[in-house]
Amino acid sequence: MWIRSTMTYRASFALTVCGNLVLTGLDFVAILLMFSQVDALGGWTLPEVALLYGLSVTAFGIAHLAFGSMASLGGRVRDGSFDTLLVRPAPVLAQVAADRFALRRLGRAVQGAGVLGWALVAADVDWTVAKVLLVPLTLVCGAVIFGSLFVAGGAFQFLAQDAAEVQNAFTYGGTTLLQYPPTVFGRDLVRGVTFVLPLAFVSWVPAAHLLGRPYPLGLPDGAAFAAPLVALVCAVPAGAVWRIGLRSYRSTGS
Fold first, then answer.
1. What is the rounded CA–CA span in Å between residue 136 and residue 146?
2. pLDDT tens-digit readout, 81-122
3. Where are the transmembrane segments (predicted)?
C-alpha cells in the first residue's frame, strides 16, 4: 500500500531518491576531502577506505530499507495507536517494519553499492572464489546485524516510548564508525565493536580478508567467514528482546 502511495507521484519519488543519494554521498565526499590532504588514513589508501565505506553503507542501507520504520514505534506506543497493529491477523514485527514504508530509502543502498563497486575494482585484491563469495555473504550478514539493532532498538521503545535517538546512536553511528579503518580508533573501542556489539564483521573483518591485511585484534584466520554465525548471534537475542518488549506493552489505558 505504501509503495503504491509513493509511486502515485513518480516525479516526487525520483527527486526524493536523488536527494537521498546526494545526502548520503556527502559522507563519502568528506572522505575524499581527507584524502585530498593525505595519502593514507591509518595506513589505508582511498580505495581501501572506500571498500569499508561501501560494505558498511550498503549493508546498512538494506537493513534501513527493511526496518527503518522501527524508529517511529515510540510514537505509536505513546499515543496508543500501536493497539491497531495487535488486532490485525499479521505478525506485529512485519507490520511495524512495513508501517509508512519509504521506498526512497533505497537511495542509500544504491549509493553505497556504487562506491563498493568502484572500490572492488580500484583496490588491490587478489581475487579467489572464496573472496568473490565473501562479498555478497558479508552484505547479507551485515544487513542482518544492522536489522537486529533496529529490532532491539524498537523493543527498547516499549519501555522508553521515545528512544529513537538512542537507537540511532547504534545504527547510524555504527555505520559511520565502520566507514573508517580500525587503526584510527582506540583498542578498547575496537574490542567493543568486535566482541560486544560485533559490527566489525560488517566491514572491518571482511575488508581485511579481501585486502590480505591482518585481522583486527589478531582474530584467527577465516574469521571473515564467521559472519553468518555472528548474524545469528545478533538476530536470536534481538528476536527474544522484541518478544519480551511486546509482552510488556500495556497500552495507554484510554
1. 15
2. 888 888 888 889 988 888 878 777 888 888 999 999 999 999
3. 12-38, 50-68, 109-127, 133-152, 189-211, 223-242
Q: What is the pTM (predicted TM-score) of this model?
A: 0.89
41 forms beta bridges with 44
Say how far apart CA 199 and CA 201 lie, in whole Å: 5
Contact 41, 124 (CB under 8 A): no
Q: From residue 198, how far is each of 7, 35, 63, 89, 203 by CA, in Å? A: 37, 28, 16, 35, 10
Q: From the centroid of its chain, how far is CA 242?
A: 18
Rounded CA-CA distance 70/157 in Å is 9
Burial class of residue 131, CB neighbours in 10 A (0-12, 13-18, 19+): middle
How far apart, in Å, are the Cα atoms of 46 and each of 29, 121, 146, 176? 12, 12, 25, 16
44 SS3 class: strand
Side chain identity at residue 134, one-letter code: L
Q: Are 179 and 52 in contact (CB under 8 A)?
A: yes
Q: How far apart, in whole angstroms, are the C-alpha atoms of residue 197 and residue 93?
A: 22
